[in-house]
Amino acid sequence: MDRLPKQSKDVKKSSKVKETKKCETSEQRAKRYSPFKALAVGGLLATAGMVEATRADATGPVDRMQHPYNRLPERYVPYKEFLEKMKKSPFYFGPKDAQATSSGETSQSLMETHQREQDKNKGKKHLSSNEKDIANLRALMEKAKDDPEVRQRVRKLIEVRQQQEQGRMLAEAPASDNTGTTVVLVHGFVGNVGDPVNCKGGYWGDAISNLKAQGYSDIRTVQYYTSDSNCDLDLHNPAYQYRCDGFNSGSEGTNNEDLNHVSCLLVQYLNQNFAGQKVILAGHSMGGIVIRNAMRLVQDNGGQFGFPDDIGHVTDAVTFNSPHAGVVGGGSVIACFPSCTQVNELTAGSDFMNTLNQNAQNPQTSAGFTQWTVVGSECDPFVGSSLNPDGAANAVAMDASHAIMFTKDNSATCYDHGGALHDSNTANDATLYYCDTMTPNVPCGTDYQNQAATVTQWVKTTTGSHGLQTLYKAVQQ
What we know:
38% of the residues lie in helices and 11% in strands. By secondary structure, the chain is of the alpha/beta class. The N and C termini lie far apart (110 Å).
């Protein structure tokens, strides 16, 4: 094998010659130490930044673009890059601007969370002194179960406080506050010998005038009989009709139309007009049953079988003289010759009423809680003939948030089947029983005369509101 040529001794010696060391200039030294100087100055500025951040916690947010760190000159760019990396470390405790914290939140998101809490507290209801007194008095009544005299005295005190609270609420609720909420009115049954419904005339005319005087500008009346007139909307509009085809359909527009089909039409109307909005529903007689059943259909079937899961947030549902337990005697009480589907369904013990009472004692939807108010009268010749002793309790036979029963003790406010809808008197001299409960599993019950029989007590008053004022106050709950 050929060997590589040997290097000359002169070449070896030349490789070992040391270079002459040159003196470092001041410019070179400054350049070499500039990164360390940047870190030192940057550290001082970061400390100043933390002081500023602490002061910001006490005085409010500061403009982060004016932060000392953001005003570093270009020669401190290396420190900026270093600090950006440090901010992502869980061990960094300096100002973070909008960078994520170790908990996953940012200073911006924390400020937004704080703002949401403030907004939430603004809308939070604080109990008035009257409401606090009422709560305390009810607790006292519970403790005095075995002392009827004390209970009677406490009831009178509760009555006084509730009247004072009603006066305060009316004084503090200007009419302009109500203009953004729609009220939908659903009328009741019409038999073969009954007069056709004139929605805005003889049926709902007084109620509409009273609600408009209280500030409700958007009031809509519902038509579901072909003989109805002067109504705002027809539930048999093709836009709603086709969605309910095949669901107990047939005999549309007559009293032989299945109430499940009428309720389905109401569901579709509410879905297409109030999804994502607030709405108030009020019904008289069978109209209250239609509303209750519509709520049940959405509660049980929302999002399936063609039923929408959003009919709007029904904030309040009010029923006047509705036979919630069913009409005993059916056709012998309600004129419909020879017979008709709707009376058969309203009869106590029917499949329709059994389903309603088993599954819809307090029907609710996912859009938000609905406060139910049920109103009845001992002088109602139709609904009042259904339960013992005179059947009046039928109108309050569901687990509502609020229940009212006008009594025979005052003939001026003991209404017939539709009388409450035409009494616009604003005096507080009606004689009635009332019960308030916000807990559906602790219902008022129907035994309003035996006040000691229910957990949530019925209270009798001689200073109650008249018919249409009851409707107004019900939707103000």
